[in-house]
Amino acid sequence: MALNREDTLKKAEKLLRQGRIDQAIAEYERVVESHPRDWATTNSLGDLYVRAGRPAEAATHYARIAKHFADDGFFPKAAALYKKILKITPDDEDVQLEWAEVAVRQKLFADAKAQLTAVAERRRARRDNFGADQIVIRIGSLDPSDFEARRVAAKVVEENGDAAGAADRHREMAADLDERGREEDALAALREAVRLDPADTASRARLARTALAAGRIDEARTYLTREVAGDDPALLMPLAEMALRAGDVDEGLGIVRELLERDPELRESLVNLGLGLAIAHQGTAFACIDHIVKQLVAASEWEDASRILQEFVMRAPRHTPALLSLVEICVDGGLESTMYQAQAQLADAYLTANMATEACVIAEDLVAREPWEPAHIERFRRALVMQGTPNPDAVIADRLSGQSPFMATDPFAEPAPPEPEPAPDEPEPAATGPSPGAPEAPESPALRRPAAPPTPRDPAFRVTLGGIDMQAILGEPSTSSETEPAVRPTAEVVPPEPAAPAAAEPPKAAQPPVRSLDKVFKTLRRDTARESGAEGGAQQLALADTYIEMGMLDEAIQALEGAVRSPRHRFQAASSLSRLYKRKGDLPQAIEWMERATQAPPPTPEDGHSLLYELGLTLEGLGETARALAVFLELQSDAGDYRDVTARVERLARVQTGG
Questions:
Q1: Rounded to whole angstroms, how far apart are CA atoms 399 and 18?
Q2: More reliable by pLDDT, 206 or 520
Q3: Looking at the domain 531-657, which fold is it?
Q4: Domain boundaries, the chain
Q5: N or C: which end of the chain has fewer CB within 10 A?
Q6: pLDDT tens, 103-161?
Q7: Which CATH number fits domain 165-230: 1.25.40, 1.10.510, 1.20.120, 1.10.287?
């Protein structure tokens, strides 16, 4: 027989009025059992249990109602019931966990965190550390914006032996932090992810790029590997540099070759990489440069190959293999003026290395080509002294006067045409000299008519200790006595020619105007400068100025890169390039060109000091305190208390020492 709900509830009410609470509870139990979804009666039954001092039974009935409300989406009602339960059973962890979940579904993260924290503390109090850790992990997953809770949760996951799971949590945090624009915090999370998962190449690549962009090379080195770099030139380039700086030449050159084969447009960047290593790692830098140069030589791109080597020896002026390669390329490519400059540098390198024989050969060649240059004479003298040659000045005098021949050859000289043989039927000229049997007198210079003015290499270019045979230089007949040289020496080395018989003496011609020695040398030097590209450098500088006035910076840069090849204009061109790159915001390139300019002689000491000061300021602005301090120290040693350089040196020194 079905239970009459209304009658039963009335009966229970009467029992309550009579104070018979246990009988009333029994009647309510009958109604709830018969109508399990009668939540109002269930709630009343729970209240009766509370009045009867039976909180556990009350909590059970309240919990049924709360779950029903939570399942149906009535979260506030469910939360109120859980709160009601905890008033009578405050240590009920299940209720606290249920309440926390309801709070989360309402996005009341503070309420949820409070309940879960209480549970974790209670578990730790009874030494249930694993259970407490699970609660901490749950707290870390409540609120995506609570990054501190998420970080703590990841740490707990790691401590529980799940490094991969902890790394995943850090990566998720990094992504969320990026969305909120918190890049530094995102990078910190990625560092933790990489620490836990070293095979995470994507995170390592991002950290390496960020460190490189900020100039933190040591940090980038900890993340960057060949696998991490993949096919990205932006990572392969610094990876090659790191390998080369560390002395791992095989790996570094392997990457350089790979980049060149993949993208020839990267050649200039790879050249700059090698040049950047030239000062501190000359051998390694040359290995990198040499590979690029050989590729250019194979394509007969002689000028580009020589330009790269010239820039290298600007930084490593005594690097013999580079200078040998430069001379060889100049000979093969027909780059005459560049070769002579390289020979001078090579001779100096040999002298520095005490390689007397090699230095002597090159110095003699330089003297034969430009006997008026004191620097060449001095190189030759030093080489002879180094060889132990007795009386080197006499040897030099013999070479210059023609008493002994120069041993050098000119690779650019055109072969002389063969002398025409006399016609077979042409009668031999009658002898006018001494009788047969007597020694034949040498031909007088006055009777010789050279087909063309001799060159400095020609034996006719005769130099004595006291002067130069102007007749031989200019190809003009002498009007002086046959027994006197054109310019009287202070210590005669060339013996006078014997006088020819009077019958063979030609009539005296009118004396031509005599050209001074200074004018001859001035003409020769002007021609040499023109051949070496000095005028071209000036034209490129003027062209660059025009482009700058028109706002055509890229074209100006191209013109200046041409002008910098002229040694005479290198300082001005490189300085201008550094300023243009600063205008474009490319500070690394600006610094590169300023450093190149410092390798060239400045027009005035003030120009050199100003450039060093600007280089120091730029490096300091980029945070390169060590390099900036080195530049300012160099400037201080050269220019003393220049501007505020003393104060800057003191400040940067304190930064370096942490003072």
A1: 144
A2: 206
A3: 1.25.40
A4: 165-230, 531-657
A5: N
A6: 888 888 888 899 899 999 989 999 999 999 999 999 998 888 889 999 999 999 999 99
A7: 1.25.40
